[in-house]
C-alpha cells in the first residue's frame, strides 16, 4: 500500500512539473503568437472573439455568446451586440451592428512595436460606421465603433490566430 502511495505521489509531482513552461518555452510561444497575429493582420484575414462590451452610457457587460468581428480582405462581418441610444434608425431597430458589407477605407498605424491600430469604415445601408481596432501582439484586442446614428460603443476580445479561417 505504501509503495502504491509513493508511486502515485511521484507521478503527481512529475505531472505537475511537466505542466510548467520554462522561460524559453514561454518566450517562444509568445513569439509564435505574435508572428501569427502579424500574419493575420497583414493578410487582412482575422476574427476577433468578443468577451466584454463597454457602452457609452451605463456599465460594462461580459459577453457569453459567440459575438465576433471578422475581416476577410475587403469585407467585414460584424456580429456585435449593441446597447445604447439610437437617434435615427429604421423601425424595429434595423441591423444595428449585425451585418456583412464591404470595407470603404482601411488604414493601419504600426508606430508602436507591441500593437497595431487599424481603422476602417463601412456603410451598412443604415449608418456610417468607423471601427478602430487596437490589436496587441498577444492577440488581445480593443474595438471602438463610432456610429453616425447611434451612441459609440467599445468591445474587448481576443484575436486567436489559430482559429481563423477554421470555423
Give short descriptive properties of this protein.
single chain, 167 residues, alpha+beta, Lipocalin, 10-stranded antiparallel beta sheet, 2 helices
Task: Give structural notes.
With 167 residues, the chain is α+β, with helices and mostly antiparallel strands. It has one domain: Beta Barrel (Lipocalin). The protein is built from 2 helices and 10 strands; from the N terminus they run ααββββββββββ. Strands 1, 2, 3, 4, 5, 6, 7, 8, 9 and 10 form a 10-stranded antiparallel beta sheet that branches. A hairpin with a 4-residue loop joins strand 7 (115-123) and strand 8. The mean pLDDT is 85.
Distance between the termini: 49 Å
The secondary-structure element order is HHEEEEEEEEEE
Strand content: 35-45%
What is the gyration radius calculated from CA atoms? 21 Å
What's the number of extended β-strand segments? Answer: 10
Largest sheet: 10 strands, antiparallel
Low-confidence stretches: none
Shape: elongated
Domain tally: 1
Number of helices: 2
List the helices and strands and how they pair.
Blueprint: H1 2-19, H2 23-43, E1 45-55, E2 61-62, E3 68-72, E4 75-79, E5 98-102, E6 105-109, E7 115-123, E8 128-136, E9 140-147, E10 153-159
Antiparallel strand pairs: 1-2, 1-3, 1-10, 3-4, 4-5, 6-7, 7-8, 8-9, 9-10
Amino acid at each position: 500500500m505504501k509503495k502504491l502511495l509513493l508511486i502515485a505521489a511521484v507521478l503527481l509531482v512529475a505531472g505537475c512539473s511537466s505542466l510548467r513552461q520554462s522561460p524559453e518555452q514561454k518566450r517562444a510561444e509568445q513569439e509564435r503568437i505574435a508572428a501569427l497575429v502579424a500574419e493575420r493582420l497583414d493578410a487582412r484575414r482575422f476574427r476577433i472573439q468578443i468577451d466584454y462590451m463597454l457602452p457609452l452610457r451605463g456599465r460594462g457587460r461580459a459577453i457569453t455568446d459567440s459575438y465576433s468581428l471578422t475581416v476577410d480582405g475587403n469585407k467585414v462581418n460584424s456580429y456585435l451586440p449593441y446597447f445604447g441610444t439610437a437617434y435615427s434608425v429604421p423601425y424595429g431597430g434595423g441591423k444595428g451592428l449585425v451585418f456583412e458589407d464591404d470595407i470603404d477605407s482601411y488604414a493601419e498605424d504600426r508606430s508602436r512595436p507591441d500593437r497595431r491600430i487599424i481603422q476602417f469604415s463601412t456603410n451598412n445601408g443604415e449608418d456610417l460606421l468607423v471601427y478602430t481596432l487596437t490589436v496587441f501582439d498577444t492577440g488581445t484586442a480593443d474595438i471602438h465603433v463610432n456610429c453616425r446614428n447611434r451612441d459609440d460603443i467599445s468591445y474587448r476580445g481576443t484575436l486567436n490566430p489559430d482559429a481563423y479561417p477554421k470555423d
